[in-house]
Every structure is written in C-alpha cells, then in structure tokens.
C-alpha cells in the first residue's frame, strides 16, 4: 500500500524502513525538504512536503510532537487511515500534557480513521524489535490495515479496543516511560499470562 509519514524524525524512519522492506511505497513528509529527502534516501522511499505526504495514499503515520498533532492531522483527507503514535508526555514528572490525543485528533478530522499504535516502545525498539513483541492497537476503523503494518514491522498486533481506549495506551506509555527512566523494570509488572491467570482472563 501507499503510506505517507507526517514527520521525518526517529519514529518515521524506524517504522518506514520496515514498511519499505515489506514492499510498501512510502513518502517521507517533512517541513524541511532536505531533512525529508535524507530520511527518504535512507529508508528507500520518496520525499515530499507534509501536505503531499498527507494525501499520498491509504495510510498516514503521524509522527510529530503531540502538541502539534491535531494541527498537522488537519492535512489528512477523509477516508485515510491515520496511525497516531504520539505521546503527550510531560518530561518533568511523566504525566500526560493532554489527556486523550488520539480522540482529540479524531474529533478534529471527521472521516479520517484514527488508530493508536506504536506509542509504547522507543524508536530503537521499532528499528529492531524482539521476536514476538506485541503491539496494542486501539481503533474504531482501520484495525486490520494497521495490524498488517504491525506484522510488517515484525511484531504481533494486539487488538486493544476502540479509540475510546486510546487514552489508556497514552497513559500506559507515560507510566511505563516514567518507571523505565527511574530505573524500574516495566516488564516485571506483567508475568506470563498462563502463570498468572491460567487460561481464564482476570475480571
Ligand atoms: N522516539 C521514540 O522513542 C518515540 C516512541 C513512541 C512514540 N513517540 C512519539 O512519536 C512522535 C514523534 O517522535 P520522534 O521521536 O520521531 O520525534 P523526532 O525525531 O523529534 O521527530 C519529530 C518530527 O516532527 C517534526 N515537527 C516538529 N515540530 C513540528 C511542527 N511544529 N510542525 C511540523 N512538523 C514538526 C520534526 O520536523 P523537523 O525535522 O523539521 O524538525 C520531525 O520531523 C512524538 O509524538 C513522540 O512522542 C516517540
């Protein structure tokens, strides 16, 4: 499929590299043509402006700072699937600067299928993900398309509910990053499911 990225930073490069290798056509969109072209050269895609990348194809990866996410998302035409990987982190105390970015984007661009995914791990992880890494996805529409793009990165999609639950993924990222930065082991919070719960989910 055709995928545009809004942003030419670390997340755009990490994910686009896999998508090009999987056979997708990717346009790296940036506000600085030179930076976008450089990243496009490294990943094997083409480069364009933010406006060109927004309407390049079926899917757009929104990979800009969360504080400009709603503004930049307005470039995306209705009918497009928009992957929101942003985290609106307050780096002073690892809380959220805005409580529900994905839902805010969705309200601002009706007709765009906003999907929250790829926000839980760092770009270095996406560059070279460990085998079997699960990627939670929150979406009302576009789940299957993004699930395939998760597999194309070498990971396992985990459907995690509708877009109303994206705020939980955003909060989870803030919690996990705060623990990780203070030296804690985030993975230790989640024992293997069989060991913890047998075959019956908790509830
Ligand atoms: N890096 C991670 O480990 C990670 C993990 C999960 C989620 N995220 C989230 O993913 C998003 C992107 O992160 P990143 O690490 O890729 O950031 P990054 O490397 O700093 O790249 C940010 C991109 O946004 C562009 N940008 C910044 N301000 C802009 C504005 N006002 N208008 C238009 N474009 C603007 C930058 O353009 P220029 O190149 O022109 O400056 C750059 O292309 C963030 O919301 C972050 O919270 C990051």
Q: Helices, strands, pairings?
A:
Elements: E1 2-6, H1 10-21, E2 25-29, H2 33-43, E3 46-48, H3 50-54, E4 59-62, H4 69-73, E5 81-84, E6 89-90, E7 95-96, H5 101-108, E8 113-116, H6 123-127, E9 134-139, H7 143-152, E10 156-159, H8 166-181, H9 193-197
Parallel strand pairs: 1-2, 1-4, 2-3, 4-5, 5-8, 9-10
Antiparallel strand pairs: 6-7, 8-9
Helix pairs in contact: 1-2
Domain Pyrroline-5-carboxylate reductase catalytic N-terminal: 2-87
GO molecular function, one term: oxidoreductase activity
Keywords: Oxidoreductase
Helix content: 25-40%
Give the radius of gyration. 17 Å
Class per helix and strand makeup: alpha/beta
For the sheet with most strands, the description reads: 8 strands, mixed
Number of domains: 1
Order of helices and strands: EHEHEHEHEEEHEHEHEHH
CATH homologous superfamily classification: NAD(P)-binding Rossmann-like Domain
Looking at CATH, which topology would you report? Rossmann fold
Rounded to the nearest angstrom, the distance between the terminal CA atoms is: 39 Å
Ligand catalogue: NADP nicotinamide-adenine-dinucleotide phosphate
Count up the helices.
9
Q: Strand percentage, roughly?
A: 15-25%
Rounded average pLDDT = 95
Indicate the low-confidence ranges by residue numbers.
none
CATH class, named Alpha Beta
Largest sheet: spatial strand order: 3-2-1-4-5-8-9-10
